[in-house]
Write a structure and sequence with these properties.
about 475 residues, UDP-N-acetylmuramoyl-L-alanine:D-glutamate ligase, Rossmann fold, 9-stranded mixed sheet, globular
Length: about 475
């Protein structure tokens, strides 16, 4: 039986993995805005652009996911001699723990996908790309670099987006090289002919891709297993991990094992890049010798985390830990999250139109004054986030006798309140770093402070946020309560 404690112990080792990623690199651009009217020129919406973001896509997103869970990645790909190619090269070079090996092929356009988003929904996607094979010289240079790197890596990942980098001959040469070095090969496939992946360790098609590659029906569990076993025998691979969207995943191995992993996602927000997350998590786990079914279970949980995020997102080790433990948590305990998970939830709430509020404190012994502050804070926003001082932080601020209750106990009490949406524990003396990361629309503090005394107030006001001083309830104080108890 796979228990949360087993998976947690595996997560702690993922940071030691070193993965070689070879495949199609692309730029994912997201253009966000609002639609308030349609064009008088044609029956199409007019998107009022508010902001844009760019991130590494394709094999670059696999590498991003690897480093987000703490692993190291070596990235091999080909870009064009153009503005997008130069931006991709710069972005890869700026990532810590990604070792870049990018070849420039003149005359070849770099791949760019642009998604236009309003109200959390994609309106349009445009692709700038070529699907022609890379030149023979580029393929030879990639192989030579890979041959030098593979012996020092734990796993080889082939991320195929059918943009021309992974030629049939190059795929087979890379798999042969990895096999000679006794390194597992994980393939995220594309197309209908999988013969170029022959000899790989594990291939991760989705249900539709499995059907296209085998020509067999894949509507039921038994059909997926039958199609998968046929593909395993045809390609001489060790296993197949079939991703099935809302139905979870199916793992089929050459030794006859079949495991159906139910979907873990509570809410699906954006599936962009989810396959990259699966491949990265699976490869990192296999790199540290994790059993295949347990590695697949981790990948399944990682997918559930990433589809609840917006854009081509990644999963952090803290996200994975929280998601693994969440199965044993009550709904209130699940509100206690690391900052990375909170930022993902906040971004989603913003896209839904919610106003984000933030307050902070020690909340050592919760009293009516605290309850009043939180109630007033909630009334000024749609989602209320509470930053909670850690035990060490409280001791520095209040003295060695404090806190009376541990940070875990204080967080659980706060999370049980309906007025609070998330609780984040921080170890610094002030929450300024958290405020700068969250960028709350409303910053709430008790009325016994002046605006000038509120940490983060100038920062919030500078970008147009609001500072709310809640009315205090006279006669209530944690320090006074403790004094009375000590008499």
């Amino acid at each position: 039986m796979i228990t949360p404690s087993i998976l947690v112990s595996h997560i702690e080792w993922l940071s030691q993995a070193r993965i070689l990623c070879v495949g199609d690199l692309m730029l994912d651009r997201f253009v966000y805005g609002e639609v308030e009217r349609t064009s008088p020129e044609a029956p199409v919406p007019i998107l009022g652009i508010e902001r844009q973001s760019v991130m590494l896509g394709g094999v670059g997103n696999v590498a991003r996911n690897l480093i987000s869970i703490g692993a190291h990645a070596a990235l091999l790909s080909v870009v064009g001699d153009d503005e997008v190619g130069r931006l991709l090269t710069q972005m890869v070079g700026e990532q810590e723990r990604i070792e870049p090996h990018l070849l420039v092929e003149p005359g070849r356009p770099s791949t760019e996908k642009t998604r236009f988003v309003a109200g959390g929904q994609q309106l349009l996607r445009t692709d700038r790309e070529t699907r022609r094979w890379i030149g023979e010289q580029s393929a030879e240079n990639l192989l030579r670099m890979a041959e030098d790197i593979i012996p020092d890596c734990d796993v080889l990942v082939l991320s195929d987006y059918a943009k021309g980098v992974l030629t049939d001959d190059l795929c087979q040469a890379l798999i042969t090289c990895a096999d000679a070095a006794s390194k597992p090969v994980v393939v995220d496939p594309k197309g209908e002919d999988y013969r170029c992946y022959r000899g790989a360790s594990i291939i991760t098609p989705n249900r539709r891709e499995l059907g296209a590659a085998t020509g067999a029906p894949v509507g039921t569990d038994s059909e997926i297993v039958a199609a998968g076993r046929g593909l395993i025998e045809q390609l001489n691979i060790d296993a197949l991990l079939v991703t099935r969207s809302q139905d979870g995943m199916t793992l089929i191995s050459t030794d006859g094992r079949v495991e159906h992993l139910p979907a873990q996602a509570r809410e699906v927000f954006d599936v962009s890049g989810a396959g990259d997350t699966v491949v990265a998590t699976l490869a990192s786990a296999l790199a540290k010798g994790v059993d295949l079914i347990e590695a697949a279970a981790l990948a399944n949980i990682a997918a559930s985390v990433v589809v609840a995020k917006s854009g081509t997102a990644v999963v952090y080790a803290a996200d994975l830990l929280h998601a693994v433990r969440a199965g044993d948590l009550t709904s209130s305990e699940a509100k206690i999250v690391p900052l990375s998970a909170a930022l993902d939830a906040i971004e989603k709430w913003r896209l839904e139109g919610s106003k984000i509020g933030f307050t902070n404190g020690c909340f050592d012994l919760l009293h009516p004054g605290h309850i009043s502050l939180l109630r007033q804070g909630k009334s000024s926003c749609g989602r209320l986030i509470v930053g909670l001082n850690s035990d060490a932080s409280v001791r520095r601020l209040k003295g060695e006798e404090r806190p009376v209750q541990s940070e875990s106990a204080r967080a659980q009490v706060l999370a049980s309140l309906e007025t609070i949406d998330l609780v984040i524990i921080f170890g610094e003396d002030t929450p300024i770093n958290m405020i700068e990361a969250i960028r709350p629309d409303v910053l709430i503090k008790g009325g016994d402070y002046s605006v000038d005394e509120v940490v983060g107030a100038p920062y919030v006001q500078e970008y147009g946020g609001k500072v709310v001083l809640a009315k205090t309830e006279p006669g209530f104080s944690t320090s006074r309560t403790i004094e009375k108890l000590q008499r």
